[in-house]
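Notebook, p. 212. Picked up where the previous page left off. The plan for this session was modest: take the two constructs that came back from the sequencing core last week, fold each one, and keep the raw output in the notebook itself so nobody has to go hunting through shared drives later. Recording the first one now, exactly as returned: residue sequence, then the C-alpha cell string.
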Amino acid sequence: MDGVLVNNMGVHFEAFAEMGRRYNISAEPGKDFSHLNGRGNEDIITALFPEWLVKEKGVDGLAAEKEAVYREIYAPKIRPTDGLVDFLARLKEEGFVCAVGSSGPKDNVEFVLERCGISDYFDVRISGDMVTRCKPDPEIFLTAASKLGLAPEECVVFEDAVAGVAAARAAGMKVVAIASTHTAEELAAKTSPDLIVNDFAELLAISH
C-alpha cells in the first residue's frame, strides 16, 4: 500500500519527526531508513525510538500515536499514485481479483482506500495486525492469496520496498517494482523483480 497505492513515505517521515518533537528525542528516519521500508511497526519503532521510551509507552502505544499523527498530516493532501485508479478499473473490467497487503495497521489501510475512493476495487484487505510476521517474511502475501482463493503462482505483487519485493519472491509470486520510494536503479541493484516501472500510468502504457 505505502509507496504503491499512495506515494506517502515522506508523510511517514514527517510523522516520525513530529513524534520526536513531542518526546524531545531524535526520531527522524534519515537516509538510512530504506532498510526499514515495508516492515512492521515493531521493527521500525524499536529501531528509531530510544529503549527508555519504548519501555515507558510500549511499541503498540507509540505505533498507534505515530499512525494517528500520520493520518492527521496526510488527510488534507492524500491522493492515489499516477495511473492507479485507471489501472484498478481495467483490472476489475477484465475480471481480476485484487488484495491489498500492508505491514501497516488496519486503520491506515481503511484510511487510504476510503480517502482515495478505491475501496470497491479490493476484494481482500490484509494489514500488519492480521499476521504474526511482517515483510520480508511472505506471510502477508500468502494470507492475501489464500483469502482470494488463489495459488501463489497465480498472483502478481506490486511493491516499492526492498523488503516487499523479497517477501513477494519468498511467496513464490511474480512482482512488479514501483520506483517511488527507491529509484529504478536502486531497485535493480537491490532486488530481483520481474518488471520495474515508475508508476501505474507507465504500466498502462506498456500494456497497451
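Okay, moving on. Second construct, recorded in the same format:
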Amino acid sequence: MSGIEHFKLALQGQQKAIVTYLHHRIIERHGLEIKMNYEIPMYYRKSWVCYLNPIKKNGIELAFIKGHRLSNEQGLLSMKNRKLVAGIDLFDVSEIEEREIDEIIQEAIILDDLYKK
C-alpha cells in the first residue's frame, strides 16, 4: 500500500474526498511528485511546494511552503500567524475553487522553479 493510500485510510467523509481530489489534481494537472513526510503528503518539484494537512472540524488545509512569497491575488490564502507557510482551509469538495487553486499552485511552482539548490 502506498503512503498516500495509508494516509487516506485514517480519514473519513469530506477529508478523504478532499485529499483524493486534490492529490489527483496536484499530481496529474501540475506534475508534482509526492513524498510522505511527517505522516502527511508533501508535493515537490525542486523543493517542497505544498502539502495536505488534516485540520479540526473535518477539514483539510492545502498549505504552501513559500506561501509568504505568493501574491494571494485570489484572497484564499491565510498565514495563520505563521511566517512562511500560507494555506487554504477546505471543508467540502464542492467549495474547491478549481481555477483559483490551480493559479496558486502554478504560482508556487514558478517560485519553486526559481529555487536554486
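Notes on construct two before I forget. The domain at 3-114 is CATH 3.90.1150.200 (Aspartate Aminotransferase, domain 1).
Flagging for discussion at group meeting.
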